[in-house]
Amino acid sequence: MSIQQTATAPAIAQTQTNQKIMTSTSDTYKTVGRNIIPNPKFSTRNVNVFYGDKQAIFDTSLDIGNNEVVALIGPSGCGKSTFLRSLNRMNDTIPICRVTGEFTLDGEDIYAKTMDPVLLRARVGMVFQKANPFPKSIYDNVAYGPRIHGLASNNAELDEIVITSLEKAGLFKEVKDRLNAPGTGLSGGQQQRLCIARTIAVSPEVILMDEPASALDPIATAIIEELIDELRENFTIVIVTHSMQQAARVSQRTAYFHLGKLIEVGKTSQIFTNPRCELTENYITGKFG
Amino acid sequence: MSNIKLVEKNLKKRYARERRFQLYGKMAVLTGFIFLALLLIDIISKAMPAFQATEILLDIPLDHATLELEPAQKLDQDTLSALNYAGLIKTALRQAFPEVTNRSDKKLLYKLVSDGAEFTLRDHIISNPELIGKDSISLWIKADDDIDTLFKLETLTSRVKPEQVAFVEQLKQENRIATHFNTTFFSNSDSREPEQAGIKGALLGSFWTLLVTLLLSLPIGIGAAVYLEEFAPQNKLTDFVEININNLAAVPSIVFGLLGLAVFINFFGMPRSAPLVGGLVLSLMTLPTIIISSRAAIKAVPPSIKEAALGLGASHVQTVFHHVIPLAMPGILTGAIIGMAQALGETAPLLMIGMVAFIVDVPGGILDSATVLPVQIYLWADSPERAFTALTAATILVLLVFLATMNTLAILLRKHFEKRW
Ligand SMILES: Nc1ncnc2c1ncn2[C@@H]1O[C@H](COP(=O)(O)OP(=O)(O)OP(=O)(O)O)[C@@H](O)[C@H]1O
Ligand SMILES: [Mg+2]
Predict the structure, then answer these.
(1) In angstroms, how far apart are the furthest CA atoms of chain B?
(2) In sequence order, what are the beta bridge partners of A105?
(3) Which of A72, A118, A145, B405 could potentially form a cystine with A80 if both were Cys, beta carbons 3.0 to 4.6 Å apart?
């Protein structure tokens, strides 16, 4: 077994003599590592997601702890977004999408008949893979969530929420003179930060981020990563990322998906230095197949 | 040959193809414009005479003797209305042509002016009663339509006698005949006499009918489109509804007229010829257009915007009302206005529900008998009097002006809503 040597992978090089676990290619498999933890904030069991006849997620169980950042990594099309979207029932909006399994947030079944998806999404916010600001002003973009949920009792309070949210997302300085300009007139990276500000303005308990930094330059990325670190004190965060460095910097635990299966879960440091599965190792070292 | 040479060689061909394609496009646009221009030139040239009316200057005697009134007599409304205005005009004509003495010539002389002339005179006197007692006043009196045609177009219609041609010649020499702007065309309703006929009735009929159509079809159309696109479950029933809406859009409009006759008039007993029924029938006809275009506009709203709103915890209804409908509005309005323009030009279904009747009164509401502009065109195009040809063309012109205004409005509205972001 040969692995390309990189400057950042001396630890990986040490482990290459260890025996790696080969994941079975059949539909039944076992996730390697600690996917189940005590007292989780979010807990999922035996999740299967289908788009019509096509299965996108296979029998996945994953817990997410309080004040924890969990990174979901894996090759394109492996189902990271699909899994993420099932956590706030965004998949309900896709008619052909069918989700099975158990999902609990603070012990509450989120797919229960009594659970209102509107309330759930106020508690579990989401930043989408593609920046999608409303065709409204920057101010109205951020104020929309607080407005519909009635979070501000007067305009001054609303201004306060909008400004702090924009500040946290590292956008305020750039837009403070044009809060009434259209949000769609911002650059791609600014739009993504606007979407982040819009999400945190509702102060959800859990934030789902689907590649929030994929369109950002290193400075904006650093701001976002700082923000994630800060948010972790009060929130729980699940982040999908294609950047291994980013996952290493911001997350405590990392989950590796492959073709709809949750292959391996573990402490971020362990996953990146000493993965136990061959598939994980191939992915993080940049070797496929 | 190197690759870049090959590219260069093909480039010429590619540009030639592009130029050819642009040429085809320009030719197509040009052809369209030529046909439009021909149509407009034809209509405008035919319509112009209708905006001018020939009038004859008459000296009308208003002294007490001629009017058979006592000088001290009080002039109330009834006395004024009861005066013999037709006689006054005849006297004025006789005085203008003192050499005419024989009976048949006098008859021809009286036919120089419009049958409605006495009413013009009456209205003038009633609003200016102080004129009574004067020896005579000069007043422009509308000429008969055959004289109008003779004077304006210098064409003899079969009903004009040589004696009348001589009268007109004489009037011309005395500068007592001229054309003036035809206000009657805009202030009167339909009439048997072309020179007395106007489009006010049809215009208001169209207004009331379209008002009913708009108030019914816009909310129902948008509501149906929003429901079908956003809330309806995807099943056989909604498929069936969708197919039927598309079918309805293709049903010949006269069928809607028959339906209106059977349901609204015969079954529900609504009044015939009323804008209410016309509006109901036209609503049925425009609804599919509005629903289909609104659905297309709603479908075109990017799903990412909906997801953004839902992801923030907006309910489905909030998402639709805060984001989807505002973004779809330009498309919805364009569809609605095109539907209304169709309704404005529709004739066939209205014939079925009696809006084709000869109606002299201006409709004051949606329950009065009325006709509409396109039906008025149909009625006049069918009339034998030559002067109606010009009236028909003028009405077509008015209709076209309205259609152009509505379409411009559609474009402006779309621009306005799009410009906001
Ligand atoms: N709306 C949909 N309808 C049908 N199939 C879908 C839909 N969305 C995703 N899929 C399929 O589900 C699988 C997982 O897609 P998903 O978007 O979750 O991948 P991903 O891991 O987020 O990839 P990427 O890193 O490229 O974003 C893919 O095979 C995709 O084709
Ligand atoms: Mg994705």
Answers:
(1) 115
(2) A42, A108
(3) A72
pTM of the model: 0.80
Contact at 8 Å (CB) between B336 and A156?
Answer: no
Distance A80 CA to ligand 1 centre (A): 8
Given a contact cutoff of 8 angstroms between Cβ atoms, the answer to whether A9 and A285 are in contact is yes
Would the CB atoms of B302 and A128 count as touching at under 8 Å? no
Stretch B293-302: mean pLDDT: 93
Residues B284-291: what's their mean pLDDT? 93
Percent of chain B at pLDDT above 90?
A: 38
| Cross-chain Cβ contact B308/A128 below 8 Å | yes
Pocket test for ligand 1, best of A48, A51, A90 (most atoms within 8 A of CB): A51
Between chains, do B314 and A148 touch, taking CB under 8 Å as contact? yes
Note whether B136 and B61 are within 8 A (CB).
yes
**Rounded Cα–Cα distance for residues B284 and B217 (Å):** 8
d(CA B401, CA B289): 22
Measuring from atom 5 of ligand 1, which residue has the nearest CA?
Answer: A51
Task: Note whether B315 contacts A: Cβ–Cβ < 8 A.
Answer: yes
Cβ–Cβ < 8 Å for A279, A256 = yes
Residue with tokens 């940049």: A286
Please state, in angstroms and rounded to a whole number, the distance separating the CA atoms of residues B370 and B355. 6
Is the pLDDT confidence value at B414 over 50? yes
CB contact under 8 A, A119 and B322: no
Domains along chain B? 51-182 (no CATH), 200-417 (1.10.3720.10)
* Closest residue on chain B to A95 (Cα): B234
User: CA triplet B166, B171, B174: central angle to 5 degrees?
Assistant: 130
Cβ atoms < 10 Å from Cβ of A272? 22
Query: Model confidence at A288, in pLDDT bands (50, 70, 90)?
Result: low
pLDDT for position A9: 41
Q: Can you list the alpha helix ranges (DSSP code H) found in A91-135?
A: 117-123
CA distance B89 to B91: 5
Residue appearing with tokens 């859009």: B249
Count CA atoms closer than 13 A to A269's CA, side-chain side.
0
CA-based radius of gyration for chain A = 20
Over B283-300, what HEC string results? HHHHHHHHHHHHHHHHHC
* Residue B318 sits at the chain A interface (C-beta within 8 Å): yes
- Asked if B57 contacts B139 with a C-beta cutoff of 8 angstroms, the reply is yes
> Ligand 2 is a single-atom ion; what residues have CB below 5 A from it?
A 81, 129
Q: Please give the backbone phi and psi of residue A180, each rounded to the nearest 5 degrees, phi first.
A: -95, 0
**Structural contact between residues B329 and B317, judged by C-beta atoms closer than 8 angstroms:** no
Question: Which has the closest alpha carbon to A71: A270, A249, A238?
Answer: A238
Which atom of ligand 1 lies at the shortest distance from residue A74's CA? 21
Q: Which fold has domain A4-284?
A: Rossmann fold (3.40.50)
> ipTM of the assembly?
0.85
Give the tens place of pLDDT for each residue, A234-279.
889 999 999 888 999 999 999 999 999 999 999 999 999 988 888 8
Beta-sheet pairing, B52-61 with B177-181: antiparallel
Most A CBs within 10 Å: which of B229, B235, B239, B312, as the mutation test of the A interface?
B312
Residue B281's alpha-carbon distances to A270, B30, B274, in angstroms, are 74, 37, 11
Nearest residue in chain B measured CA to CA from A137? B421
- Would you call B235 an interface residue with chain A, using a CB distance cutoff of 8 Å? no
Work out the minimum CA distance from A90 to partner chain B, whole angstroms.
7
Chain A residues with CB under 8 Å of B311 CB are: 88, 90, 121, 125-126, 128, 199
Query: Residue with structure tokens 């949920």?
Result: A149
pLDDT of the residue at A17: 45
